[in-house]
């Protein structure tokens, strides 16, 4: 069990670092409404591989790495908490779909598995961008164009990246796991040192 926990922790660290690297790569810039990238994909892979707890930890670590590396925009302490700890950790909510996704993949129900993946990605992305939206209404509103309400400004600025990132990540994850489902099914089995294809979430 200890060995398995160590493997999970190592994978969390690796995938969080991978997400950071993807986030630093060129993305689709939308002018005044942010940018769109596939940086969340590694967190979704962890989510569908190890479940809710591991993906929340990976998302939280990704947010922490952004702060450590200076890849952040900070106006207030609680805004950093919202947008870099809480928002990124909430991407891990997609891990709640892990048992159903793995069961359907094992049973050959790929269509259902893909729908569940998209649902998980939409939930994780939506909750993440909800916190960005809240920060936009309460903190970033000072940058809203003259005559535009804080609500409309934040909805536009965060809504477009949410939709774009959700679509791109859904396409990337479905293609990736459709061609290589072993990425989430073949996991270390702990004491035996082999691999396990069950659906038990990491403890």
Structure description:
There is one protein chain. The model has no long low-confidence stretch (mean pLDDT 88). The chain has a two-stranded antiparallel sheet. A two-stranded antiparallel sheet has the order 3-4. The protein has one domain (2-196): Orthogonal Bundle (Arp2/3 complex 21 kDa subunit ARPC3), CATH 1.10.1760. 67% of the residues lie in helices and 4% in strands. α5 runs antiparallel to α6. It starts with a helix and ends in a 7-residue tail after the last strand. With 203 residues, it is mainly alpha-helical.
- Give the CA-based shape: globular
Mean pLDDT: 88
Gyration radius over CA? 18 Å
Low-confidence stretches: none
Q: Indicate the CATH class.
A: Mainly Alpha
Q: Can you name the CATH architecture?
A: Orthogonal Bundle
- Biggest sheet architecture: 2 strands, antiparallel
Strand content: under 5%
Number of domains: 1
Topology:
Blueprint: H1 2-24, E1 28-29, E2 35-36, H2 41-50, H3 52-68, H4 77-89, H5 98-106, H6 110-138, H7 150-179, H8 182-185, E3 187-188, E4 195-196
Antiparallel strand pairs: 1-2, 3-4
Helix pairs in contact: 1-2, 1-3, 2-3, 2-5, 3-4, 4-6, 5-6, 6-7
